[in-house]
Design brief:
CATH topology of the largest domain: Jelly Rolls
Structural class: alpha+beta
Helix content: 40-55%
Number of helices: 11
Radius of gyration: 23 Å
Order of helices and strands: EEEEEEEEEEEEHHEHHHHHHHHH
Largest sheet: 7 strands, antiparallel
């Protein structure tokens, strides 16, 4: 899905992450008689679908309305209640997200505790399906997949940065992998910041030259080239949304659209206009009638439009 590509978690090897749903999803449907006062030993993601819920989380007031999503971190005491006659409906899921099977990844992040999901129009049907399909007393593989999409959407919107002091002291390859992951996600989250690659390197606890080599080995690019790739990746999505090449160039920080086009092709291997032609052909089914060899020719730019039209 587009919303999870190139995001905060995109630089983490999937095998390094372990997510566990520690109980069945809670189908919230509360009236004004509802009140809760507790703390959980695991993290809790709460999403509001209808009505309004009131909370105090470690004494901090929060009001939940449709589209609002909040994280109640493990060990936080929270009080919840309803006001008025409107039913407060939503879903809550207890979970853990660990890296390398040992360390709480959520604890390494600075996250805004409550946000409104930026893609709520797209995600609301998914949340309703998640709530409706959740078994009352078990957890299914499908629930794991759906919840990961929702959790990633929350992290993308709520992410502020990585904590300066780690909650644990990893060693060896784990420590280096985590340092590279943090640097890569800093760059992914702020590709238009001209100084972000340099800051990501400076914040690493390793020797600069050593870290540069290890970053390139794991990511496949130097930090600066990775930033340029993420910058052009953002431009690619802007173009796909219908923006002109010139306007897309300005949005990602280029004043000269011709220079932007050259950098786009150098980084992604295709010009902005050729990328749009490729997307159009794909969307209208232009690839469907071709065999694998012809598809490769067409996508590489070596296929002639006239030949295609005559087939």
């Amino acid at each position: 899905m587009d919303e999870i590509e190139g995001g905060i978690l995109s630089s983490i090897p999937p095998a390094a992450l372990t997510m566990r749903l520690t109980r069945a999803a809670i189908r919230m449907e509360h009236s004004r008689t509802w009140r809760i006062d507790k703390e959980n030993p695991v993290d809790d993601l709460v999403i509001c679908l209808e009505g309004r819920g009131h909370y105090l989380v470690d004494g901090e007031p929060r009001v939940m309305e449709p589209g609002d999503t909040m994280l109640i971190s493990r060990g936080q005491r929270f009080v919840g209640w309803c006001v008025g006659d409107t039913v407060y409906k939503g879903v809550a899921q207890h979970f853990t997200l660990d890296i390398y099977g040992r360390h709480n990844l959520i604890a390494q992040m600075v996250l805004r505790p409550k946000i409104r999901l930026s893609r709520w129009a797209m995600l609301e049907p998914l949340v309703r399906h998640y709530r409706q399909s959740a078994p009352p007393s078990s957890v299914t593989l499908g629930q794991h997949h759906l919840f990961m999409v929702l959790l990633i959407a929350f992290i993308e919107d709520a992410f502020v940065g990585w904590r300066g002091g780690a909650a644990y002291q990893p060693e060896g390859a784990d420590a280096l992998d985590l340092a590279v992951m943090k640097a890569a996600t800093m760059i992914s989250a702020n590709p238009l910041d001209l100084d972000i690659a340099a800051r990501a390197i400076e914040e690493s606890p390793y020797n600069r030259d050593y870290f540069l080599r290890e970053f390139q080995k794991r990511v496949g690019r130097t930090p600066r080239k990775y930033q340029e790739f993420k910058r052009m990746e953002r431009a690619m999505h802007i173009l796909e949304a219908g923006t002109t090449v010139g306007a897309a160039a300005v949005e990602v920080g280029y004043t000269d659209p011709y220079y932007f086009s050259r950098m786009f092709k150098k980084t992604l291997g295709v010009s902005p206009r050729d990328h749009l032609r490729r997307m159009h052909r794909s969307r209208v089914g232009g690839l469907m009638g071709l065999d694998e060899t012809d598809q490769e020719l067409m996508l590489s730019g070596n296929w002639k439009d006239e030949a295609f039209a005559g087939r």
